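Suppose you are handed only two things: the residues of a chain and a line of SMILES describing NDP. What would the bound structure be? This form records exactly that question and the answer produced for it, so the two can be stored side by side and reused later without any lookup.

QUESTION INPUTS
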Amino acid sequence: MTVPNPLRDPQDRRLPRIPEPCALVIFGVTGDLARKKLIPAVYDLANRGLLPAAFVILGFARRDWGDGDFEDLAREAAKKHARTPWREEVWTRLAGNFKFVGGSFDDNDAFDTLTSTLDDLRASHAIQGNAAFYFSIPPGAFPLVLKQLERTGAADNTVSGGWRRVVVEKPFGNDLDSARELDDLVDDVFTGEDVYRIDHYLGKETVQNILALRFANAMFEPVWNSNYVDSVQITMAEDVGIGSRAGFYDTAGAARDVLQNHLLQLLALTAMEEPVGYSPDEIRTEKLKVLRAITLPGDLENNAVRGQYAEGWVAGEKVDGYLSEENIPAGSTTETYAAVKLGIQNRRWAGVPFYVRTGKRLPRRVTEIAVMFKKAPHLPFHAYDTETLGHNQLVIRVQPDEGVTVKFGSKVPGTGMELRDISMDFLYGEAFTESSPEAYERLIRDVLIGDKTLFPDAAEVEASWAVIDPLEAFWAGRKPHPYAAGSWGPAAADEMLSRDGRTWRRA
Ligand SMILES: NC(=O)C1=CN([C@@H]2O[C@H](COP(=O)(O)OP(=O)(O)OC[C@H]3O[C@@H](n4cnc5c(N)ncnc54)[C@H](OP(=O)(O)O)[C@@H]3O)[C@@H](O)[C@H]2O)C=CC1
Ligand SMILES: O=C1O[C@H](COP(=O)(O)O)[C@@H](O)[C@H](O)[C@H]1O
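ANSWER OUTPUT
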């Protein structure tokens, strides 16, 4: 046992901390994310007893609503999407704490009303001046809402007498330049330490477990490098299409929507060095070194593939192609699939390709990180006995079958010496009685208690755009490869790996 160093591990994380009295202000409270994730997460926190006794949830949207209308929407959303069981008594306690302000982002009166509502709550000692502003709104509206919060003084924690924090959804910017502009603006309006750039993948239990797996054990780290690893495959596949998000999605595409953030964060956690301690700064320092060391191959023509789904069949159901989705402009060349080979220029990973792919309308929803090991340098068996042996694999199954799989060769029972690959599985559902909190539940609580460990900082976001920008520039003006909905993406993505003598793992 050593004396704890408060810089390396600033808090005892075994005990759940209850936030101070506060308000959570959600902009875009009628939207998809707020209804499916944020409001249910607030209910789950209440259900687990992790909200302060004095807590107000304040919704803002373009509706002529009273507090009761908002409460009705929230109840329906929580009942439908919460992870924890429905308990009427929990809802009853939460229910009196809903407030609603209606208006558009360019409506000064609405923001004045919002600010005076927060002032009244502080004056009545309901929230002690503490408030977190959650931007669950189209990314293009971030600057306007920031300016409104600046104009009204609502962002100013010296005036409010408590803390004022802001949670900015992804994508943070549209490229490196716009991310920098947004960084400047958000740091002007709030102080840097009060800005939470959210990437909900970091709130997933299985993603946090990457560091535990790698650094709490002795057996993985010695082989976690280019001496033993042949390649790494990171897959984020979705069976859904773009749903009702055409307006946002068509301006973004798969690379900006998830590659720039979720997938590069998964890559950073997989490839980073051991942090000095489990504190926000130490972890970000190591992730940032990886993000800055990422390179795109010179030959992008053969190593970066973008695709767009055409009509097809998913889970036995005929579905439209992207171009027939509601509100998608005719002839759109936005990609719904992206696959790219990345390198990491450091001693640990030089020469190891990281193949990263994501797509909508693929056969099933699965996110995983597969570390593919090199083949054994020599086998003392006959070649015909080992025909079915592949690479050893360690697969971190992020979702939906949360767990870890290790794949290795084993003797087939019998008198001969035939070898075959087998799998050893760790399943969360079998190993733990505790249920995983939903990512947003974890992250909202972190915002309210002021823990930034799981939030990327400006430098990480900028380093990620520096990877994506040249890719987008290369793709500009090129048509994506069509792929049938329900397939694993364009043939060009398979060819990309086969040129390297590899195949995609069947996820
Ligand atoms: N949906 C998802 O699965 C995920 C979304 N995100 C991010 O979350 C954010 C929100 O996404 P999502 O919920 O899907 O978006 P939606 O389009 O479903 O919702 C947007 C919300 O913003 C409101 N809004 C838009 N314009 C204005 C305006 N001028 N004035 C007032 N309110 C306005 C809408 O209100 P109104 O009802 O009046 O139109 C609505 O409540 C985005 O940044 C997205 O990238 C991140 C991860 C996942
Ligand atoms: O951020 C986003 O993530 C969702 C997928 O999230 P998951 O937790 O269900 O894996 C994706 O559908 C959406 O396009 C993207 O904006």
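WHAT STANDS OUT: DSSP finds 15 helices and 18 strands in the chain. Residues 238, 257-258 surround LXAUTJHC (ligand 2) (CB under 6 Å).
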